[in-house]
Amino acid sequence: MSQDLKQRRREHGWSQEEAAVRLGLSQSYVSMLERGSRPLSPRLARKMARVYGLPTVLPVSEPRPTDNQTLAEALARLEYPGFAYLRTRRQRKNPAEVLLAALATDDLEARVTEALPWLLLRYADRLDTQWLLEQARLHTLQNRLGFVVNLACQVAEATPQYRDRVPVLTRLEQRLRESRLANEDTLCQARMSDVRRRWLRENRTREAAYWNLLTDWRPEALRYVV
């Protein structure tokens, strides 16, 4: 998100000093926000969204594993159709934070896993991809993220309404390929049985094999992406 703030300021033709005046901040604080060395509070995020004309600016924090119900409720607030019945008026979380929190969870329910490609498709143009990359590498989630990005990209290529997401998703996947891990993993299914693991090694997709994941998720299994 820090790069988005810097880019949008420059698009307006503002110096950091001019942006600081509009935001009621010091120039040094604007500089720290753009470098990502200061977090965005929800209040400041809303103000920056208004001043900069951004569609959404939500603060992010370090991804932590969480429970499936909490993730489902967070996805509902981000308007995921599969969890519309859980929607509340509580503060939304940043989509990138929700995505990585889900990927950091070892035993993810299928209903939550299914929502992750949708999250990328819905918010591809608003994600701080640099933050995503850094956090994925820090928490060794690049293979899980790379596979989910690939799923979303396959859907985008085949779906006219998402076609404009392809360049962003392709660039993100290419950068994740640079740090692909050699260790075998699952797509958030740590308690998978040995029988299931053996079957998936023989029957997983080419993309799952590339990302060293034992999973059988395919684009056609995603119900809410169109």
Average residue-wise pLDDT:
88
- List SSEs in N-to-C order: HHHHHHHHHHHEHHE
| Tally of contiguous helical segments | 13
Q: Please provide the count of β strands.
A: 2
| Biggest sheet overview | 2 strands, parallel
Shape: elongated
Overall helicity: 40-55%
Q: Helix/strand/pairing class, anyone?
A: mainly alpha
The structural domain count equals 2
Radius of gyration: 18 Å
Strand order of the largest sheet: 1-2
- Tell me what portion of residues adopts beta-strand conformation: under 5%
Cα-to-Cα separation, first versus last residue: 26 Å
Low-confidence runs (pLDDT<50, min 5 residues)? none
Structure notes:
With about 230 residues, this protein is an all-alpha fold. The protein is built from 13 helices and two strands. The protein folds into two domains: about 1-50, 434 Repressor (Amino-terminal Domain) (Orthogonal Bundle); about 70-220, no CATH class. The protein has helices spanning about 1-10, 15-25, 25-35, 40-50, 70-75, 95-105, 110-115, 115-125, 130-140, 140-160, 165-175, 195-205, 205-210; strands spanning about 185, 215. The chain has a two-stranded parallel sheet with strand order 1-2. α2 packs across α3 (about 25-35) and α10 (about 140-160) runs antiparallel to α11 (about 165-175). It is elongated, with a radius of gyration of 18 Å. The model has no long low-confidence stretch (mean pLDDT about 90).
